[in-house]
Amino acid sequence: MKKTALITGATSGIGKACAVALANSGYDIIATGRREERLKELKNELSPQTDYTYLVFDVRDKAAVDAAIDSLPKRWTAIDVLINNAGNAHGMDPIHEGDTADWDAMMDINVKGLLYVSKKIMPIMIDKKSGHIVNIGSIAAKEVYPNGNVYCASKHAVDAITKGMRLDLTKYNIRVTGVHPGLVETEFSLVRFKGDEERAKHVYEGFAPLKPEDIADIVHFAVTRPAHVVMTDITVLAGKQANSNTVYKDQ
Ligand code: NDP
Ligand code: 8X3
């Protein structure tokens, strides 16, 4: 019996790699994001035997989240796997110089957006008495680094929500996994530094950062464990990264 995965933030980076990995492993894919062109193009990259559909919404907009998920034809509603991946950092400033619009974006997208999407999907899984939710946290969910303040707070919240989900949902046969990557080369830093390509590129120079496919491998491994196994919490760093603030770069 084929399974269906809904992946938020599938237009780029980790979410897109998860869509490709799960499609290649036979999952039908519901991809979501705001950039519709990319969601259309993704169909061409997925294996031909996989059924694919997409939903365009901003996770901050609860009404849009509800309407999009309600619009799914019945064939798509039996969602087995939810990957809560949509998110970004916005800015990287000392807390007293932080831009409140950036703070709003990170709390609204990374925390409230994840909750809005989950609120729609959890009842489906509870009805079926099965499901798997993977929340993409970060090493920033486990540690706080200089100028990471509110981004780290948003990801600590994701970690707490992940633990809370597991406590409340395990009795319904719903597995919950937190995946916490270190530095992964995606559009993440371009967004964080508001389009400053040089600054974004510098983050990943002088060492081999994680690739989105490395994280997708881990997500794929977690969701394909037998039903009696749950991977609860996976932290993964680049080989030359010792913690959130220590990377050994080539001289
Ligand atoms: P990218 O910028 O490459 O991808 C972010 C994705 O999130 C895009 O698909 C984007 O889609 C989506 N997204 C962002 N804001 C919204 C929104 N308001 N509504 C809907 N979708 C949104 O970054 P990554 O792939 O690196 O990030 C994915 C996740 O991984 C994030 O939660 C991030 O915090 C986390 N992470 C990243 C790490 C890294 O080093 N890169 C390390 C640890 C965790 P669109 O713009 O089309 O809406
Ligand atoms: C993204 C990785 O180190 O910038 O969550 O927080 S980091």
TrEMBL record:
UniProt keyword Oxidoreductase, yes or no: yes
Keywords, in A-Z order: Oxidoreductase
UniProt keyword Oxidoreductase present: yes
One Pfam short name: adh_short
The protein, known as: SDR family NAD(P)-dependent oxidoreductase
MF term (GO), any: oxidoreductase activity, acting on the CH-OH group of donors, NAD or NADP as acceptor
PROSITE patterns xrefs: ADH_SHORT (PS00061)
Annotated family: Belongs to the short-chain dehydrogenases/reductases (SDR) family.
Membrane-spanning segments: none
